Amino acid sequence: MTRVAVLGTGLMGSAMARHMAGQGLDVHAWNRTPDKARALRGDGVHPAASVEQAVQDADAVITMVPTGDVVAALAARFLPAMPAEAVWLQMSTVGGAWTDRLLRQAAEAGRRMLDAPVSGSSQPAEQGTLVLIVSGAPEVLERARPVLDVLGSHVAHVGEAGEASRVKVIVNNWMTASVVAMADTMLACEQLGLDPVHVLRVLQDGPLGMPYALQKAGEIRARAYPAGFPLGLALKDLGLLAEERHRSSRLSDTVRETLQRAVEAGHGREDVAAVAELLRRDLL
Fold first, then answer.
1. Domain range for residue 276?
2. Does 97 share its domain with 124?
3. Which of 67, 132, 155, 190 is most buried (CB neighbours < 10 A)?
4. CA atoms lying within 13 Å on the CB side of residue 135
5. Where does the pLDDT of residue 1 fall: very low under 50, low under 70, confident under 90, or very high at 90 and above?
6. What's the distance, CA 78 to chain centroid?
7. What is the pLDDT of residues 74-89, one digit of tens each?
8. Helices marked H in the chain
9. The 6-phosphogluconate dehydrogenase NADP-binding domain covers which part of the protein (predicted)?
């Protein structure tokens, strides 16, 4: 049986751990808040008392935590403790610069790392339908296949040295901009006294229908924003992209500034679609 250590059991890490355990993998989990890992026991996940215990005898170690500095601090602990033949799947969204540092950290410890951020929110994580964006040596990718194929519906191998993290923040920039555009579209319907169903039907029935944006339209109409992708994390990811670009575009700057104001207005823990509440407040 493939043994997997999941370090970080927040929204995404817990969903991934539950799914892998349900598919028969031997999953051990650790979280800085121990109760979050212990809460997964009923789903067949084994909570670990320490990072070192979690990675003992693991075939794969998954990191799913918010920032690069947290990943690096954890890696300093688990890299010496993980088996030499195990693969570290670095799935946290930390941007290209941090990924380069983490790759060096793994190499210095004599361990193999795949840069493997995911595209998708907690619902696809629960269903095993994530898109896995992976960069790393092909032979290491093949060794990690038993885990990757359980977690995702598609593995996009985009290079061998940190390209995946850069692809991820660009994809998240596109995704977030599309949600802001949908929020503005729903607001325009309200301002013009139109039932948004008419606009959404035209989108859905034609080539412009983006399933994710249409899903967010439903949340915006209901004014309910369960956190599939928290707004605060979206803002963090846009900041990672901005740090690596020589010059940000005006559009990207506008989207990032809009999210910043939404966080300041108290929507940081809600789904990114909650940006609609800021737009309504501004214009209605």
1. 166-283
2. yes
3. 132
4. 16
5. low
6. 21
7. 999 999 999 999 999 9
8. 11-22, 34-38, 51-55, 68-78, 95-108, 122-127, 138-143, 145-151, 163-191, 196-204, 211-222, 231-244, 250-262, 275-283
9. 4-159
